[in-house]
Design brief:
Elements lengths: L1 E5 L8 E5 L9 E10 L2 H7 L15 E8 L10 E5 L14 E5 L3 E3 L6 H4 L3 H14 L7 E5 L4 H12 L3 E6 L5 H7 L3 E4 L5 H4 L7 E6 L3 H8 L2 E9 L14 H4 L5 E4 L9 H13 L6 E6 L3 H9 L6 E5 L8
Parallel strand pairs: 8-9, 8-11, 9-10, 11-12, 12-13, 14-15
Antiparallel strand pairs: 1-2, 3-4, 3-6, 3-15, 4-5, 5-7
Helix pairs in contact: 3-4
Bound molecules: NADP nicotinamide-adenine-dinucleotide phosphate.
């Protein structure tokens, strides 16, 4: 089969298209004919050498959608449509930048859907992350409004859609005023331009502060975000678009206003059930949930897709369609 292999960290050119052996079916694991997969920032970090636990050479890719080829000893049947995500995929063992993927059954979600592969491929990791952040992290069922910091990321766009669908008033941020219209189109009632100092600007919308704040920029803006939330409100850090994992000289007594709650969401495929993922997929299929999806690329264009991610120009989830096997089928 064909797979994009990375041998050393660096730019998109470090991803090389190779012919490697197709994985062999294995008891308790599912062999999937990969039809499409979304690109993720975590793969971007890994490509650049910022995931010390990932040993090269490796086939990256933490999610995919496709059809079961074989599932020895399991309940899944050949041909069945599935999604797979996380659980070490593309990190501890080879992942989805390949025509076939072998994944432990625990991380495979059977799905009933006729959605096009390129649409379905955008959904698993995105929906899992947003569902987990909004419900496990932010408990949005007890909130009326939310600020999504990093609104133009694929996670940001999906969070706008899901928060809106849950009845919240949504405000979203971007650093780039030209992207404001896209955020409004996606469902944001208000857009704030993020120059790193948002807390003051938020007061004109909610003088006491927001009920909830989804932090996708990370530690570089977290202290400012904590000042933008009301007493009893919650800040959930889910992303690190700002590129820094740690907070230096963090003084909790000064940084966290009294009564404001700080949590984080690091994501696990077990945070969303098959039924919940199916529910969202059905809503997308019926047109009741409109998600902003970025550009689609062919399997051969993976480097080009990574370049787009380097340049922050995707405006939504980037999807790769694997197309025909070996370019012919
Ligand atoms: N916890 C989890 O389970 C989980 C799962 C998936 C993703 N994530 C995280 O969620 C975040 C979003 O991921 P994604 O794949 O959706 O991202 P993405 O679509 O690649 O995000 C692109 C956007 O990021 C913004 N951005 C890029 N660099 C930035 C910087 N230095 N400072 C501020 N904004 C910056 C840009 O917004 P503007 O130019 O418009 O400002 C750009 O439009 C990432 O940090 C990712 O690691 C977490």
């Amino acid at each position: 089969m064909r797979a994009w292999v990375i041998r050393e960290a660096g730019g998109p050119e470090k991803l090389t298209l190779k012919a490697i052996p197709r994985p062999l079916p294995r008891k308790g694991w599912v062999l999937i004919r990969n039809r499409a997969f979304g690109l993720n920032r975590s793969e971007w970090f890994t490509r650049r050498g910022a995931s010390p636990s990932v040993v090269f050479p490796r086939v990256l890719g933490i999610e995919c959608v496709g059809q079961v080829v074989a599932a020895p000893g399991g309940d899944l049947l050949p041909g069945q449509r599935v999604a797979a995500m996380m659980g070490g995929m593309g990190r501890e063992y080879d992942g989805s930048y390949a025509e076939y993927v072998l994944v432990p059954r625990a991380h495979v979600f059977p799905l009933q859907t006729k959605l096009e592969w390129k649409v379905l491929g955008a959904l698993p990791e995105m929906l899992q992350t947003v569902h987990g952040s909004l419900h496990t992290g932010l408990e949005i069922d007890r909130a009326e409004n939310i600020l999504i910091r990093g609104g133009t990321s694929s996670i940001g766009f999906a969070a706008i859609a899901l928060a809106r669908a849950a009845g919240l008033e949504v405000t979203a941020t971007t650093r780039n005023p030209q992207k404001a219209a896209g955020l409004k189109e996606a469902g944001a009632a208000h857009v704030l331009i993020d120059d790193g100092n948002l807390a003051q600007k938020t007061r004109s919308l909610h003088p006491q502060g927001f009920d909830r704040l989804l932090e996708l920029i990370g530690t570089t803006t977290l202290e400012d975000s904590l000042q933008a939330v009301r007493r009893g409100g919650i800040v959930c850090m889910t992303g690190i678009l700002g590129g820094a994992w740690t907070l230096r000289n963090f003084k909790p007594m000064e940084a966290i206003p009294g009564g404001v709650k700080l949590t984080a969401y690091s994501g696990s495929s077990s945070d969303i059930s098959v039924e919940q993922l199916q529910h969202y997929v059905t809503l997308v299929e019926s047109g009741l949930l409109k998600l902003t999806i970025g550009p689609t690329f062919s399997f051969e264009e993976l480097r080009k897709a990574h370049r787009l991610m380097d340049e922050n120009r995707a405006n939504g989830k980037i999807v790769i369609e694997t197309g025909k096997e070996n370019g012919k089928e």
